[in-house]
Write a structure and sequence with these properties.
The complex is a heterodimer of chains A (about 170) and B (about 475). With about 170 residues, chain A is mostly helical. Chain A has nine helices and no strands. Helices cover about 75% and strands about 0% of the residues of chain A. Classes of the chains: A mainly alpha (about 170), B alpha+beta (about 475). Chains A and B meet through helix 1, helix 2, helix 5 and helix 6 of A and helix 1 and helix 2 of B.
């Protein structure tokens, strides 16, 4: 039995946009396996309602964001304990800035990390971020501010990178 | 800072191991998504159904359910005998402290022609409406079928004095009105006949002849049988020498039987002797000929035209059934058996001989309890058959079978009405009486829906709780799908 039109379109979409969306998934989770799970979940969700999707990539991205937060909620007790245990400046184990930022991102909550990825990697505005995540722009602003403040606390050497509040926060 | 942070994040993403699914994985993702879609639709449909049922259940639980029996939804409006008999749930048969059934009962004035009458395991008489299939639980005046004291003398699974006429228009039952615990007077007993169309009731008072009163003497009527034309009614019973609210006993084995003529209120006691045997069953023909089966096995016949004519025997059978049935032409008497047999006893009244009819070994390899209910025509008997043990009356069924007058190579046997299997002993019918005139060779039975019984308290509570959980579950389900944070 050959592929139907919808399935063919879906397969082409996965092949074309899988890598880019995979990067976003990795940035959101900070873990390769979690990212794979998250991305596959988002693709399955897209397949469920493929015929009704006007912008499949936007839907998959939105699913990545919200599902990542849901995943974090399911394991937040454990993660809160980690945050409390490590919520103090730590010396970077790797001298490169990238690894330090990656380590620091690991210590943010999923909500904070997601807001940072949307604001600074996806380049969404506060309003766009708020709409995607289904929260108010004020919540996006405060979450973003807390996330950056925490990065400075966790990794003082990132002060130059995150030292200035992003646009709209001043 | 913004661009620098963006670049750093992009580099982190670029340096990460490849996360994108392989091309081979895309079809699998597609299939998983479509299966999930199907599953979601089923869940959504189930949730809606649960919500609807839940709201219905809550409404019923809050409102207390229907106040009385709702009519069964008829699959046909034509009068007929139902093809399925349903057990009356035990919780429906409510009793007060005086063992009187309190409902939901149908007043006798609101009844119509019936297709079938039976008595539940708890002794409640039930009439099945001929046209609607509705089950009417009855509070018949003087009915003692559920009386504990009566149960001490009569095995309810053996016989019950309740009989619907073959045309379905009259319902007869035995009645008695025992007095207080210290009453010693002769009590009123007899047979009552209700015209189901007009609501008129006639009462025949039966007084035991020639017996000294000890304490509440009366006649306990055990069996009733209609003539094929629904005009004559035969009865049999025994004299009870002590019967009041405090006890029952001292009954005489003296046989006692009689016939009540068309429209009559006279008991027509035909036979009362001191012989040390008792009447086990009766039947009556269109001309009023009374047929009596005795416990010693003799089948006796008494002509209506000569009340003083002594009986003569047509043969001797073992374990005769409580009520027989005479064929419309008066030539055959279907007797049946009180025990499991491999044949059904019939009597050739013209040839004055017994004519047993063998049961099919394919249908009844171990024999069956077979009791006559009436005749479809002069060559076809309607019977109630049961193959299981005494405690499993719910497996009984109504069947039609050829009489011995039909050549054996043309014999037929067909089960036409089945009983709903049930473990509710209170609901199992212990006795059946059928309006056989509603059965024709072309339309033996009609299909009826199961009665919509009022819910029990336990069921209301269970459904209420389940409904609440279902409603909350659906609400949580919908709420969780909408929630993003």
């Amino acid at each position: 039995m050959g592929q139907g039109r919808s399935e063919r379109e879906f397969t082409e979409f996965v092949a074309a946009r899988g890598a880019a969306l995979g990067r976003t998934a990795y940035l959101l989770t900070g873990d390769h396996h979690h990212a794979e799970d998250l991305l596959q979940t988002a693709f399955v969700e897209a397949a469920k309602r493929w015929e009704r999707l006007d912008e499949p990539e936007a839907y998959v991205r939105r699913t990545l964001y919200t599902r990542n937060i849901s995943r974090w909620r399911r394991t937040r007790v454990r993660e809160v304990e980690l945050v409390e245990r490590h919520d103090s400046p730590t010396a970077p184990s790797d001298p490169t800035l990238r690894l330090t930022l990656e380590q620091a991102l690991d210590r943010l909550t999923a909500r904070q990390r997601t807001v940072l990825v949307l604001r600074y990697f996806e380049d969404l505005t506060e309003v766009e971020t708020a709409r995607v995540l289904g929260i108010s722009p004020g919540t996006v602003k405060s979450t973003n501010r807390h996330a950056l403040s925490r990065l400075r606390t966790l990794a003082p050497e990132l002060a130059e990178l995150v030292g200035v509040l992003p646009r709209g926060d001043q | 800072m913004t661009q620098q942070l963006h670049d750093e994040l992009a580099r982190i993403g670029d340096a990460a191991p490849r996360v994108a699914p392989s091309p081979d994985l895309a079809p699998d993702l597609w299939r998983r998504g479509r299966r999930a879609r199907t599953r979601d639709r089923l869940v959504a449909a189930g949730a809606v159904l649960a919500l609807v049922l839940g709201l219905g259940g809550l409404t019923t639980a809050v409102m207390g359910g229907p106040a009385e029996l709702l009519p069964a939804s008829p699959a046909s409006d034509d009068p007929g005998v139902p093809s399925m008999l349903y057990a009356v749930p035990g919780h429906v048969q409510k009793q007060d402290n005086d063992q009187r059934f309190t409902g939901p009962l149908t007043p006798t004035s609101e009844l119509g022609p019936g297709a079938l009458a039976f008595v539940t395991g708890d002794g409640v008489p039930v009439l099945v409406d001929a046209e609607s299939g509705e089950y009417h639980l009855l509070d018949l005046p003087g009915w003692r079928g559920g009386d504990v004291l009566v149960g001490m003398l009569i095995d309810a699974s053996d016989s019950q004095p309740l009989a619907i006429s073959p045309d379905g228009r009259q319902l007869a039952w035995a009645w008695a009105e025992p007095g207080g615990r210290t009453d010693t007077a002769t009590i009123a007993t007899g047979v009552r006949v209700l015209d189901l169309e007009s609501g008129d009731m006639r009462t025949a008072v039966i007084t035991s002849p020639g017996r000294a009163t000890l304490s509440g003497q009366g006649v306990l009527v055990r069996t009733l049988a209609w003539s094929p034309d629904s005009r004559w009614l035969a009865w049999s019973g025994l004299t009870v020498q002590e019967w009041n609210a405090g006890g029952i006993g001292g009954y005489s084995p003296s046989p006692l039987a009689g016939r009540i003529g068309p429209g009559s209120t006279r008991p027509g006691i035909q036979w009362a002797t001191d012989r040390s045997t008792s009447v086990t069953g009766t039947a009556i023909s269109d001309d009023g000929t009374l047929l009596v089966t005795q416990q010693d096995g003799w089948v006796m016949r008494y002509q209506a035209t000569s009340p003083q004519d002594r009986s003569f025997s047509v043969g001797r059978v073992l374990n005769p059934a409580p009520a027989g049935a005479v064929s419309p032409d008066g030539s055959m008497l279907a007797i049946g058996s009180y025990a499991r047999e491999t044949s059904m006893d019939l009597a050739d009244l013209e040839g004055v001989r017994l004519a047993p009819r063998a049961l099919s070994p394919d249908v009844y390899p171990d024999g069956a309890f077979v009791r006559p209910l009436g005749w479809l025509d002069d060559d076809t008997v309607v019977v109630l058959a049961r193959t299981e043990g005494d405690g499993d009356l719910g497996r009984s069924h109504i069947a039609v079978m050829s009489a011995p007058t039909v050549p054996e190579e043309k014999w037929t046997y067909r089960i036409v009405t089945r009983s709903e299997p049930t473990n509710d002993a209170a609901g199992v019918a212990s006795f059946h009486s059928v309006a056989v005139d509603l059965m024709t060779p072309e339309h033996l039975t009609v299909d009826r829906s199961e009665p919509d019984w009022p819910w029990s308290i336990e069921r209301r509570a269970t459904v209420g709780v389940v409904s609440g959980v279902a409603v909350v579950g659906v609400w949580v389900f919908l709420w969780s799908r909408r929630r993003r944070w």
